[in-house]
Specification:
The protein is about 55% helix and about 5% strand. By secondary structure, it is mainly alpha-helical. It has 2 domains: about 170 residues, no CATH class; about 120 residues, no CATH class.
């Protein structure tokens, strides 16, 4: 009887323990679901004028025997994008010497390396249906949070590996397909791309690059006179924009980290924050000293080699998340309209990793 009683008590205790654990797990699950529900919105009722232009097809269809006339027709057809393409993206300088300009375009259309690049883009992107769906969804999310925005036209182009992954012209978005041919494309190192940037030349990063470029277009950051905390919060807000307009993507994809890199950040968040404080970096305005922490790089100065670059941006993102947790009535998109007082914002976020 004593044995049975002890067994019953142990059974009841274990049962209560299991129920408590299950209850706690359910709470965590519901909490995560609420977060996802908040970010994953229904965009089916949002109407946008979405269209795609395979601009690079039109460029490579130009007749080199009637090049000037062909460029004029192309410019008449797509005036805004043609202007930036022939001047900025390719560097042909259409507004300078006409003969030099036409010779540059002819070289672009006939030189074997450029022709091979065009063929490679054709092979890697036989169609853009998947990209079209991703970018249309991005535009709809932007429209949901910023109703006055009118993004809808996407121009796919080839700049000749001039390192343009995404550009904006007014409300037009340009996507450089030649900068998304995969990390194993052999010619990226020859144009000076470092390894950490080559890793992000995968097609999967097109939507991220597009969203980041749109944010920078609409909410440009002037780093002059800003301290590191100011820059971290500005970049953290940019990451929040990516997080809500691309809700299906993982944190790794959004910030461009590998899974081990993200795990390192999560496990060392307190150490990172402590380093910034102890080195008196948070309120430093020394450009050369602080910009490395909010830009892409192979690793972060002063930290172990396994640390990723851009670590200040990641911390700024966590501060933003903490602030929104502490202030559930605040809509994240309203923060884009404010000049944030970084010290006050940090205090109100109650960020303590």
């Amino acid at each position: 009887m004593i044995f049975l009683k002890m067994y019953e008590q142990k059974y009841l205790y274990n049962r209560r323990l299991v129920l408590n654990v299950c209850y706690f797990a359910i709470l965590l699950f519901l909490g995560s679901c609420q977060t996802n529900v908040q970010k994953k919105i229904d965009t089916s009722g949002i109407d946008i004028d979405f269209k795609t232009i395979h601009y690079y097809h039109d460029v490579y269809a130009l007749d080199t025997n009637a090049l000037e006339e062909g460029i004029e027709l192309l410019t008449d057809k797509y005036p805004l994008f043609s202007s930036i393409f022939f001047n900025e993206l390719t560097g042909f300088n259409a507004n300078h010497n006409k003969d030099t300009f036409l010779a540059s375009v002819r070289h672009f259309l006939t030189y074997k390396d450029y022709r091979n690049l065009y063929d490679t883009v054709q092979k890697n992107f036989p169609n853009t249906k998947k990209l079209d769906r991703q970018l249309e969804t991005l535009f709809k999310h932007i429209k949901y949070y910023f109703p006055d925005e009118k993004w809808g036209a996407v121009y796919y182009f080839i700049s000749g590996l001039n390192q343009w992954s995404a550009v904006t012209v007014d409300t037009l978005l340009g996507i450089g397909l030649d900068m998304h041919l995969g990390k194993n494309f052999p010619f990226y190192p020859s144009v000076g791309l470092p390894l950490y940037q080559i890793e992000l030349c995968e097609p999967e990063y097109i939507a991220v690059n597009a969203a980041r470029t749109i944010f920078e277009n609409r909410f440009p950051l002037n780093p002059e006179g800003k301290n590191l905390l100011d820059l971290m919060l500005a970049k953290g807000l940019q990451m929040t924009f990516l997080e809500y307009t691309l809700p299906e993507l993982s944190d790794e994809m959004l910030i461009g980290y590998s899974t081990p890199q993200l795990k390192w950040c999560q496990e060392n968040e307190r150490m990172i924050w402590s380093y910034f404080k102890k080195q008196n970096l948070l309120f430093s305005t020394q450009w050369q000293q602080i910009m490395r922490y909010v830009n892409e790089g192979p690793s972060s100065t002063g930290m172990p080699p396994e640390s990723p670059g851009n670590i200040g941006t990641w911390i700024g993102w966590q501060i933003m998340r903490r602030y929104l947790e502490q202030h559930p009535s605040v809509k994240w998109n309203s923060l884009t309209l404010k000049n944030l007082d970084s010290q006050k914002f940090l205090s109100e976020a109650k960020y303590k990793p």
